[in-house]
Amino acid sequence: MIHKNFKWLRVASIGFLVFIVFGAYFKIFSAEFVYDDYAFIVNNKAIHGLSPVSKFFTDPNIFTGAQDNLGGKNWRPISSLAFALQYKVFGANPAGFHFIGILFHLINALLVYFLAKKLLNRTDGALAIASLWALHPVLTEAVSWISNQSSLIFFGFFLTAILALFKERFWASYLFFAFSLLSKETALGGLVVIAAIFFINKINWKKFIPFVLIGLAYFWLRFEILESLGDHVLRGSFWQNLLLAPAVFWKYIALSVWPANLLLDYSNFPLPSGIFDIRVILGVLSLISCGLLIWLSIKKSWPYFGLGIVWFIAFLLPVMQIIPFQDIVGERFLYAPLAGFFLAAVWGFEKLPEHFVGAGTKILIVILFIFFGLTMRRNNDWMNSENLWQSVLRVDSRNEKAAQNLSAFYLQKGDGEKIVEFSKKLLEINPNSKAGRLHLAVGKIMKGEYKEAEAELLMLIKKYPDFQEARNNLLVLYQQTGQDGFILGTATAPAVEGNIVNSGIAGKVVIGSDKPFEASLAVYKSDNPNTPFISVRAHSDGTFQIPLRQGFYILKPLDPDGPAAPVKESYSFIIGNGQWLQVKIEYK
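Structure tokens predicted for TPR domain protein (588 residues):
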């Protein structure tokens, strides 16, 4: 009977974890690609095919798509291969990638549960640890952002390595630890965790040597392939960089305890003002407190309480800015540390007097409900680029990257009003932003504010004479104001609902002295000038009409049979929201 109850309890616990993970993340199935997803997946041709498989292990450009984009290099061969396998199955469909990401997170939640049960020998405590970890809102950056699947993959392999270690299956543990390292370099922090497990369980230290050798071999291979140790960035003075580590450590503790004002981009994280900066003081005190708690766990024989603290610190060590690198703070970096945080918290909680434990169970349920709601709400921000960057500006109104990405997002959508709004916001933050000035000019062209657009573009060209994009847009502006005889005027169509294209170009093809001419025309998108987007033929009276969504296009008159030829080889133009351009195309 006891065996049956135990089996039922295990099934119920697993079912509960499945329910809360899919419940909290279900809306992400309909989320779009955002931010780095385009560089890492959509535009990364290297992962669009599996052959040869060796490229994933030898080419440092593949993970970030550095060969096709302007991103930096990184070496995560297993994570790169995982992207390629998913692309093989799902193509450029984000739903498939999101499904795999949520599935990885669920598997990791189950692994955390099994490991916690092994350590605590209690189902309720293990379920509490796994549930708190799985639902913590700060983990949404790792789970809901496709580009960060490497965090999920490396942690899954690491947890498997630890479970194998406890079963004394050392060769399996060595193998999965190696897989973890090949998925993400953060796994190096796991060596400290493994050493702590050897110490607690009095395992023969000779068995630890292969873990060290694997770590050293990985470190050497990574350096050989990347030809550097990483994207190190010094900020401010030597002392500011030195004091950044405790300030960052305190920020991670604060996010773990109070996951509010979550933020994708911490580029405006203030550097410490000095040794008396409150964040530095709290960070140093926190590190000292962690050291004292580890000492207490040894004295009191609370081994896994101490292990949880060691786990939390060990996985944060590579990202605490001890060696400064690009991202000052990243919420995704808490994906592995939080498992240790909750192991220590639940273990410590169970050592409290009985009357505290009863009240604590009710508090735990309330926290889980809060985490569930906060995770669902945070996932709204990950649905698309607009929501994501708007969420950044809500927390950090001076975030330059957010303002620039929003102006670029609305530029793609052809929304002149929004382009102008966020370009102005960008220029308020950084008056010298080339992108801000350029986007502002294009937005004004779309709104028909041609004189203001011309002034912005001339200002850009005066300051940056070789800025070709500014010159191209000035040419478009002159065409649209009729200075080359192509565009005769504009008309604004009434707003329509649904997916109806209510903008484009219309006009007439003429030859000689305005005689109607029947000719073929090809329209290209500006980002793909070699493949026609649409081809049409003018009517016998020379008239034509081409519906086009908002955007930047190139029209090319085609050479007909016979002696006639177009006066110009191509015309560039911008279509605004609900805007119809009236044009004339001449042949001679």
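The chain is about 55% helix and 10% strand.
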